[in-house]
Specification:
single chain, 55 residues, alpha+beta, Alpha-Beta Plaits, 2 helices
Length: 55
């Protein structure tokens, strides 16, 4: 399973990228997740201020 991103809700704040312990997140216009690196830890989901991420 991989973190899902609601691109319409994402505000590209970068908090998920900073919080991810396996560097699976990148943020440009919206957050993106590298499915090969994501380990479903969920720290990014917990930190997202607009609830744009889910497991």
């Amino acid at each position: 399973m991989v973190v899902k991103i609601d691109e319409d809700t994402c505000i590209a704040c970068g908090m998920c990228e900073e919080e991810c312990p396996v560097d699976a997140m990148t943020v440009d216009d919206v957050a993106k997740v590298d499915a090969d690196l994501c380990e479903d830890i969920g720290k990014c989901v917990e930190i997202c201020p607009v609830d744009a991420l889910s497991l």
